């Protein structure tokens, strides 16, 4: 198979004339490039229009002996929380004689596949090359899922250690990311579940193409299941965050209640001695030491007794 990364009219006409299978991979093509490619390969005007505007939902449109397959690929970036564009829209034009892929930005997974196919000397069937391109795009989600698994584990540990506002912001960021990924993967899964046979029916592809596309469908099912499980884990992180915050508020409330309870008898004693001070000086408090013993001593004794009672009940320590 020939792998091409730019529009070469003479070479493309020669390969089409000789019926040799090729893959044309274009990064950031201009509108004129797409129109010219449509004229060169006989693409349907509606398909060309979709590729000019992009922003398409994953879908499969068949036009005679050619098809336009719109897919979303995953773009991994380190650190993951700075990955503002986790998806790359890729348009695949499929025929029994060639594959054309269009994407706005560089897509590393397709570049790696191009290098592998250029270095491979073994000849494969046309449906195998179609499968490899589609499979590379679909499998680009797995590194993102692996990163998400680690992020969610770290997030759970951070929440248990001490829930802070930063963890709440991380929860919302992961929720938005999972929603974007699911909106991209589920339509692709539906396409291969209902319409994959239309790709198989293209002239030049053999019947065993169904086996290849069944493998792609299985990968999409696995990705969807993992996204659903991560969504449940994020929901659990939200519950854990709220529970941790509530427990911390309960701990603070308990401490404030203990302090208020300790000061309750102290307020009573100071009020009692304050309102009866003259009578106490004339009849009870005969000297400074007796004042210290009855006044401060009773206050310390009551505070110590209450603290001992709280400690015995287990209210003064953390629930470790």
Automatic annotation (TrEMBL):
Alphabetic keyword roster: Cell membrane, Coiled coil, Ion transport, Magnesium, Membrane, Transmembrane, Transmembrane helix, Transport
SUPFAM superfamilies in UniProt: CorA soluble domain-like, Magnesium transport protein CorA, transmembrane region
Listed Gene3D superfamilies: CorA soluble domain-like (3.30.460.20), Magnesium transport protein CorA, transmembrane region (1.20.58.340)
Tagged with keyword Transport: yes
Primary residence: membrane
Gene Ontology CC entries for this record: plasma membrane
Coiled-coil annotated spans: 107-165
Topology versus the membrane: Multi-pass membrane protein
Localization annotation: Cell membrane; Membrane
GO terms for MF: cobalt ion binding; cobalt ion transmembrane transporter activity; magnesium ion binding; magnesium ion transmembrane transporter activity
Family affiliation: Belongs to the CorA metal ion transporter (MIT) (TC 1.A.35) family.
Role summary: Mediates influx of magnesium ions.
Designated name of the protein: Magnesium transport protein CorA
UniProt source species: Schumannella soli
Lineage: Bacteria, Bacillati, Actinomycetota, Actinomycetes, Micrococcales
């Amino acid at each position: 198979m020939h792998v091409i990364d730019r529009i070469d009219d003479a070479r493309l006409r020669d390969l089409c004339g000789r019926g040799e299978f090729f893959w044309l991979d274009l990064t950031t093509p201009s509108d004129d490039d797409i129109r010219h490619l449509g004229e060169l390969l006989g693409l349907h005007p509606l398909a060309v229009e979709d590729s000019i505007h992009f922003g398409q939902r994953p879908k499969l449109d068949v036009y005679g002996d050619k098809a336009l397959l719109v897919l979303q690929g995953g773009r991994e970036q380190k650190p993951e929380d700075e990955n503002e564009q986790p998806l790359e829209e890729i348009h695949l034009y499929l025929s029994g004689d060639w594959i054309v892929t269009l994407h706005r930005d560089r897509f590393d997974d397709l570049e790696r596949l191009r290098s592998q196919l250029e270095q491979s000397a073994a000849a494969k069937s046309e449906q195998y090359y179609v499968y490899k391109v589609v499979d590379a795009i679909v499998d680009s989600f797995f590194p993102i899922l692996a990163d998400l698994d680690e992020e969610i584990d770290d997030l759970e540990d951070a929440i248990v250690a001490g829930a802070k506002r930063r963890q709440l912001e991380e929860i919302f960021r992961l929720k938005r990311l999972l929603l974007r990924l699911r909106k991209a993967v589920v339509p692709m899964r539906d396409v291969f579940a209902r319409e994959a046979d239309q790709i198989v029916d293209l002239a030049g592809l053999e019947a065993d193409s169904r086996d290849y596309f069944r493998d792609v469908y299985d990968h999409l099912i696995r990705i969807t299941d993992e996204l659903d499980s991560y969504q449940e884990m994020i929901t659990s992180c939200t519950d854990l965050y709220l529970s941790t915050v509530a427990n911390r508020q309960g701990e603070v409330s308990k401490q404030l209640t203990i302090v208020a309870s300790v000061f309750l008898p102290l307020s009573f004693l100071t009020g009692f001695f304050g309102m009866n001070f003259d009578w106490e000086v004339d009849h009870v408090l005969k000297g400074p030491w007796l004042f210290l013993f009855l006044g401060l001593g009773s206050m310390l004794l009551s505070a110590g007794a209450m603290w001992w009672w709280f400690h015995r009940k287990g209210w003064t320590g953390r629930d470790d």
